[in-house]
């Protein structure tokens, strides 16, 4: 009874990724930095490299490395303290250009995008269309960007990485497996250092070896991840492109049993809420670029105020923003029935964006605190001011139910 074969809908997926984004923006601002080795990140010896130019990579420099070591490896490099606000601005400019040109756009990080161009082929010639879009971004912004074009997200992303720097690559339908076969297993998205080591210990170097392995062997060695990695190695991926506007915000609010005018208490609750939500951001490997505060008074009139901010997931950045919004919004002496906060404009990304002000010490502090939260619950460590507020509510990872990816350094 093979009559009811599963219909396979062929998709056309475009992946766009700005090349060494922070470095490129710095070079746009100061053209004397072109072609010179460049390190962007925390500038003190305790700082961390957030991005590095291709010229530094031959010296063994990579992002996530301590600035001190990077400077030792490549002493001639120019070191620049990054600016999250500037990068957020350029990220938005590129987003706007793409958004106008594609039906469904997913912004997967500050410098990375997926678009679903399925069904466009007969009208426009989707690849030609994508190529023109890439040229438009380059000519309008001056920023180099690479693209991958394939039938799913995983293969298009790998194609972009193979095309880099400043180039493009199309993988024709049916050619996914031969394209992936000769590559290192490290090129498969999701193969982190630990998985890489496990597979290396088994003598697996090339994607082709995984393609030739029975799927149950992979599952036995790597558990549930084994199946996903096996599928990716074989060029199989049906995850959808999730439109930008559909991307969820995260929020929390609290209704009081008795209406209050205790400003001190309200502020402390807002701090506790911000701590909790920003932890949720980090746990979901997300950054937000818009924060909002909501107040409902005892007469049920509800007001909210929002603020666009540079991408971040750091408490020490978010708390002052939230408290600032509250000061502007709150009408003194009115009884408050409910307060709440919301983080929106979420993209995938880790704290690297905040590495510029922060040093390793601060980063390790976040890492340590989040580690305790992961183990003992999200209310196990809180700021002293937030201790008075009892319940913010315990939440699941609001993004995907996956375990946290804390400080997984982003590859460029
Ligand atoms: Mg990039």
UniProtKB/TrEMBL annotation:
Subunit structure comment from the entry: Monomer.
Cofactor remark: Binds 2 magnesium ions per subunit.
The name this protein goes by in its record: DNA polymerase IV
Keywords: Cytoplasm, DNA damage, DNA repair, DNA replication, DNA-binding, DNA-directed DNA polymerase, Magnesium, Metal-binding, Mutator protein, Nucleotidyltransferase, Transferase
Protein family per UniProt: Belongs to the DNA polymerase type-Y family.
Keyword Ribosomal protein assigned: no
E.C. number: 2.7.7.7
Active site positions, chain numbering: 112
HAMAP family with a match to the protein in the record: DNApol_IV (MF_01113)
Enzyme class, broadest EC rank: transferase
Record: residues binding Mg(2+): 17, 111
Lineage of producing organism: Bacteria, Pseudomonadati, Bacteroidota, Flavobacteriia, Flavobacteriales
Principal subcellular localization: cytoplasm
Entry's localization field: Cytoplasm
Reaction equation(s) it catalyzes: DNA(n) + a 2'-deoxyribonucleoside 5'-triphosphate = DNA(n+1) + diphosphate
Function: Poorly processive, error-prone DNA polymerase involved in untargeted mutagenesis. Copies undamaged DNA at stalled replication forks, which arise in vivo from mismatched or misaligned primer ends. These misaligned primers can be extended by PolIV. Exhibits no 3'-5' exonuclease (proofreading) activity. May be involved in translesional synthesis, in conjunction with the beta clamp from PolIII.
Cofactor requirements of the protein: Mg(2+)
Site (Substrate discrimination): 22
Domain called UmuC: residue spans: 13-192
């Amino acid at each position: 009874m093979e009559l009811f074969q599963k219909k396979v809908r062929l998709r056309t997926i475009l992946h766009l990724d700005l090349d060494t984004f922070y470095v490129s923006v710095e070079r746009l601002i100061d053209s004397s930095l072109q072609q010179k080795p460049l390190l962007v990140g925390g500038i003190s010896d305790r700082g961390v490299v957030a991005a590095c130019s291709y010229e530094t990579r031959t010296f063994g420099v990579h992002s996530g490395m301590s600035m001190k070591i990077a400077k030792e490896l490549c002493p001639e490099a120019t070191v620049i303290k990054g600016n999250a606000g500037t990068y957020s601005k350029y990220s938005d400019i590129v987003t706007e250009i793409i958004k106008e040109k594609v039906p469904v756009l997913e912004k997967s990080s500050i410098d990375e995008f997926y678009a679903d161009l399925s069904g466009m082929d007969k009208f426009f010639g989707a690849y030609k269309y994508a190529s023109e879009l890439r040229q438009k971004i380059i000519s309008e912004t001056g920023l180099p960007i690479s693209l991958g074009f394939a039938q799913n997200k995983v293969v298009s992303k790998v194609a972009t990485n193979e095309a880099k720097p400043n180039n493009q690559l199309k993988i024709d339908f049916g050619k996914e497996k031969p394209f992936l076969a000769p590559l290192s297993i490290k090129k498969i998205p999701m193969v982190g250092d630990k998985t890489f080591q496990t597979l290396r210990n088994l003598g697996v170097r090339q994607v082709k070896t995984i393609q030739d392995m029975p799927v149950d062997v992979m599952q036995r060695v790597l558990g549930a991840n084994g199946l996903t990695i096996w599928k990716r190695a074989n060029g199989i991926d049906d995850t959808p492109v999730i439109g930008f506007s559909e991307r969820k915000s995260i929020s929390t609010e609290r209704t009081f049993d008795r209406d209050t005018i205790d400003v001190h208490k309200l502020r402390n609750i807002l701090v506790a809420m911000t701590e909790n939500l920003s932890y949720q951001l980090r746990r979901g490997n997300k950054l937000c670029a818009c924060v909002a505060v909501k107040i409902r008074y005892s007469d049920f009139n509800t007001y909210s105020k929002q603020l666009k901010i540079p991408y971040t997931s750091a408490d020490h950045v978010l708390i002052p923003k939230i408290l600032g919004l509250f000061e502007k919004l709150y009408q003194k002496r009115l009884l408050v029935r409910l307060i709440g906060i919301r983080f929106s404009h979420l993209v995938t990304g880790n704290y690297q964006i905040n590495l510029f002000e922060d040093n390793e010490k601060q980063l390790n502090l976040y890492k340590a605190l989040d580690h305790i939260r992961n183990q003992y619950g999200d209310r196990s460590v809180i700021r002293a001011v937030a201790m008075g507020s009892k319940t913010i509510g315990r939440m699941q990872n609001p993004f995907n139910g996956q375990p946290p990816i804390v400080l997984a350094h982003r590859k460029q």
